[in-house]
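REQUEST ID: PR-0412
SUBMITTED BY: lab tech R.K.
PRIORITY: routine
TASK: structure prediction, single protein chain
INPUT:
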Amino acid sequence: MMNIRMLSLEFPNEVEEYMRRLDVYSDGIKIMSPKANCFLVNLEGISSVAANILKQEMLSVAGEVAVPKDVILGKSRDTHCLVMGNLNQLRQLSRKLERQPFGLNVFSDRLNELLDNYLSDKFVIDTPRHKINIRKRTLIIGIVNLTPDSFSGDGLYAFKNIHNSRYLQEMIVQDIEKKVRDGADIIDVGGESTRPGSKPLRPKEEIARVVPIIKRIVRRIKVPISVDTYKPEVAHAALDSGADILNNIMGVKNDSRLLKVASRYRAGLVLMHIKGRPRTMQKDPSYNCLMGEIVDSLDKSIQFAVGQGVKKERIIIDPGIGFGKTLEHNLEILKKLSELRTLGRPILVGPSRKSFIGKVLDLPANDRLMGTAAAVCVAIKNGAHIVRVHDVKKIKETVKLTDAILNPN
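STATUS: complete
OUTPUT:
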């Protein structure tokens, strides 16, 4: 009896694995697998002449390009278009455009780079103390909020005299050790609240909160330590005390001083997208094209950081859920997260206990574990390599099962 069905194989590696199970010749797998996945490439800022050439060239390899009707009628000068094809067709298109005029040779190079980035699935963040391998297993960052005013209600450690109290420091360190035992691959220490409406701390006060803890845990845990800061003075003190990663929420809005500190210490660097600043970011944030603007902003952040001496291989990107975004924006980011793959860097997502979960479920911050777990599952499915969470033990179970489903080998 004949059996026919549709398959859900989203990435080339899944197609290749299915063909191997069919016992297809290895040479045949190499030839056929690029034909099995469809890609949609958005192209803006192209002339109508170039768009028409692009359409004809793509049709010649059995692909397609959608263009506005004014391009076909010759009424438009500059335009944008949607290129549709499988990996094999897009590679052929790139070769055909190498010698074309009207900027299409530039598009050829950019298209190849975009495809290479999108298909990247293995990364190594190399710091002086740790080599962080990012492969099939999703990594977990455990959040440590050394603040009295955390939005999530977990800022229980922050007392003004914490740097003078060994007892309080030891309590924090033991909690961090538990997060590591529970499955945290990285510990992220933050001394300043970045909740909506929060005011910035003086660097001296932030240093007093985070540095004593970093100095203690660097001797007692064997996982990398991240410091959540955008201030160069705090970054310098934290890295000097043993931190491995700078988690910079300000992205391109930060000046070059912090990036030079990251370069000097050869630290890992998280670049996050934010609209505005923490104090004002939730005052009616709006976008013409949410994911397009996030990708463009993060791309500029990467280029700026590289220009200041940071190795691209040490950069992690974060779309900034909750940072200058509405409920609808946050849901769209999770749904379309895979678009960030075009930047070719590991993707970090931090949905933990965020207000968008509370709005959907009508729950306070400390009751958002299940909502966080659901968001984490979707994020991993759509391309997240690292998740930043409060409830490490429970989310570890979520991550482990999600990884087992998506990456069984």
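NOTES: The chain has a mean pLDDT of 89.
REVIEWED BY: pending
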